[in-house]
Amino acid sequence: NIRRLYLAGADLRDICRQLGISARTVYRYKDLTEPPPRPAYRRKASVLDPYVPYLVARWNEGCHNGKRLHREIREQGYRNSEEICARFTAQLRRAEANGKPPSSVPRARKSSVAGLSPTSKNVAALFMRREEKLSEEQKEYLVRLCGADEALADARRLTQEFNGMVRNLEGEGLDGWLEEAEGCGAPAMRRFAAGLRKDLNAVRAGLTEEWSNGPVEGFVHELKLLKRQGYGRAGFDLLRARMLAA
Fold this sequence. Notes:
By secondary structure, this protein is mostly helical.
């Protein structure tokens, strides 16, 4: 519809108004002769994935009781909710009702990084994750990735070091970390370090002191919530009384 209206001579503003879409969308599609292909869907990894082969095997043996299957995989180390297991057995049940094999139930691809496509967001999440919480597949992927690009290797190392300072309140290492970050080959880390420099005293205190303004922020949030609840329905006297009683 966008291209048809555009070729008919309609103004871009009229197209936006008529179709109820943004100008950015119109600019993106007005010159396309056919709809763009949809990106391939890739399911995210599930905590149930390591136990799926066992569940499918037990299902094929005739065990269709979701609670029993959940108990069995708990004995193998599964520590998550029964609901996840129940959803999977429901998928198996639907596949069987439609005459499809259990293998037709979608699962994460083995070629992906634990079911995740290697987007910048997913790689950043892996950089942030603790080493002991990475799967073997994720560790191998990060080794290959960092081995192929020195800047990425610097970014991951500096990210892990900064996370360690945050978790362990090791602010005494901040100056050395900033010097390394400012001289590394990763532009994102250099920008991050420059941002920390702008409020260095506060950052150092946050990485050193056990005190936090978290309780204050929580109380401010509560007061704002009370204020919003009374919007349009209460005067100052009632608002003051509720806040004093909070």
